Amino acid sequence: MSNEQTFIAVKPDGVQRGLIGPIITRFEQRGYKLAAIKLITPSKEHLEKHYADLSDKPFFKGLITYMGSGPVCAMVWEGRDVVKTGRVILGATNPLASQPGTIRGDYAIDVGRNVCHGSDAVESAKKEIALWFKPEELVSYKQAQHDWIY
Ligand code: RTP
């Protein structure tokens, strides 16, 4: 599936810490293609939709406050198996369990400040992309270097 897409976000802590660049670099250098990007401070209602499946968790309220505390860098990345591989690039949800070499394993310590988000399945990626982006914000283009990757 060379045109699989995933939703990746640099969370407010990652934006404040200047980690947008390093996170983009990891996806670019792996061979994935950026299909959409924007900075947005999400509303409470937007985040409650995004995290609807976690609404009964004790950390839900704090999570919504944290995610709405400043700009988020919302992105769509495209390429073969990008949903699963994107989660590997991010590392485990709890940074203390993340391997060195992953984003969270290199940049984070606390599960409540874990720098980035990535869709956990192809179906949730579709829903999240539709929630965060208008169809016209997604850009389709050919990258010459991809002929050397696939
Ligand atoms: P994400 O959606 O942010 O990529 O994270 P995930 O799939 O790896 O993990 P999920 O279980 O969906 O949790 C979403 C976010 O909630 C925060 N969290 N806090 N015990 C806690 O305090 C706790 N557990 C999860 C994290 O920011 C996690 O990324």
From TrEMBL:
It is an enzyme of class 2 (transferase). It comes from the Eukaryota. Keywords: Kinase, Transferase. Its EC number is 2.7.4.6. This is Nucleoside diphosphate kinase Ndk1. The gene is ndk1.
